[in-house]
Amino acid sequence: QPKAYAARKCFVSELLGTKRKLAWIQGIVVSYSDEELELDDGTGVVRVASSKLTKDHFRRIKKGDYVNVTGAWRGRISKFQSHSIKALSNPNAEALWLCEILDCHFYHKLGCHPLLKEQ
User: Fold this and answer.
1) I need a surface site. Which of 2, 59, 63, 84 has the fewest CB within 10 A?
2) Would you list the domain boundaries of the chain?
3) Partners of residue 70 on adjacent β-strands
């Protein structure tokens, strides 16, 4: 039976220079079109595209929105292929995200969280 991996919460800077892996990132939309957007999380900027989302979905996302994106990082072409993009309305989402990342890294280093194993 194949192993299932959860998308790992991380900063954009952690994706740069790595090979393909599942990830969960959050950040501010700095530019967008009908087919892709650029997301800045404060550590780096990444292009985000999705073949699963409609152009209407991308049109609902606006510059300046804080969004949650899950999907696969394509390191060779420096693009994030998303499975999900969701605008977040909670004004505390950005601060809470930092805490979530730190929590994940802490447990990952200790090796006590089974869902955070690298691919």
Assistant:
1) 2
2) 8-111
3) 24, 84
Task: Report the distance separating Cα 83 and Cα 51, nearest Å.
Answer: 8
Residues 80 and 71: beta-carbon distance below 8 Å: yes
In the predicted model, residues of the chain with pLDDT beneath 70 are 1-5, 19-20, 76-77, 107-119
| Integer Cα distance of 15 and 8 in angstroms | 11
Cα 54 from Cα 43, distance rounded (Å): 28
3-state secondary structure 13-39: HHHCCCCCEEEEEEEEEEEECCCEEEE
Instruction: Using alpha carbons, select from 25, 117, 11 the residue that is nearest to residue 72.
Output: 25
d(CA 80, CA 25): 10
Integer Rg of the chain from CA: 14
Global pTM reads 0.78
Residues 6+ apart with CB under 8 A from 76: 19, 20
